């Protein structure tokens, strides 16, 4: 039987890298990171601006909906006062403040 010789493992070709190449690549990576940071900052600012706008509009809609019931109750009270022929004014609450509605009959 032929005898196998033990061969030392070989390493593939080694790529030489010069210092200037490393410096150029590092500069490109740093500039790329700064550009990405600016792009992400602008995108996040845009998204946060949209979220704040949506939150304000939802809050406004909630206040209007909440006051809608109060205004309907006030209109019913004024209607009932006028239907009874009374000349006294009606006091309603709007946004936590009392509002007086004078009767046009008085």
Structure description:
With 106 residues, this protein is mainly alpha-helical. It has one domain (19-101). Helices cover 61% and strands 9% of the residues. The protein is built from one helix and two strands; from the N terminus they run αββ. The protein has a two-stranded antiparallel ribbon. A hairpin with a 2-residue loop joins strand 1 (90-94) and strand 2 (97-101). The protein is rod-shaped.
Low-pLDDT stretches:
none
| Tally of discrete structural domains | 1
Quaternary structure of the protein: single chain
Structural class: mainly alpha
* CA radius of gyration: 39 Å
One letter per element, helices H and strands E, the order comes to HEE
Average pLDDT over all residues: 84
**Can you list the strand order of the major beta sheet?**
1-2
How would the global form be characterised?
rod-shaped
What summary fits the major beta sheet?
Answer: 2 strands, antiparallel
Strand content: 5-15%
Assign a percent range to the helix content.
55-70%
Number of helices: 1
Give the N-terminus to C-terminus distance in angstroms.
128 Å
Number of strands: 2
């Amino acid at each position: 039987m032929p005898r196998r010789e033990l061969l030392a493992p070989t390493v593939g070709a080694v790529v030489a890298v010069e210092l200037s190449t490393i410096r150029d690549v590092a500069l490109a990576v740093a500039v790329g990171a700064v550009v990405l940071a600016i792009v992400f900052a602008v995108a996040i600012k845009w998204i946060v601006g949209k979220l704040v706008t949506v939150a304000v509009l939802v809050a406004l809609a909630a206040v209007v909906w909440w006051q809608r019931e109060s205004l309907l109750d006030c209109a019913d009270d004024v209607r009932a006062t006028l239907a009874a022929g009374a000349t006294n004014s009606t006091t309603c609450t709007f946004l936590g403040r009392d509002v007086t509605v004078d009767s046009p009959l008085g």
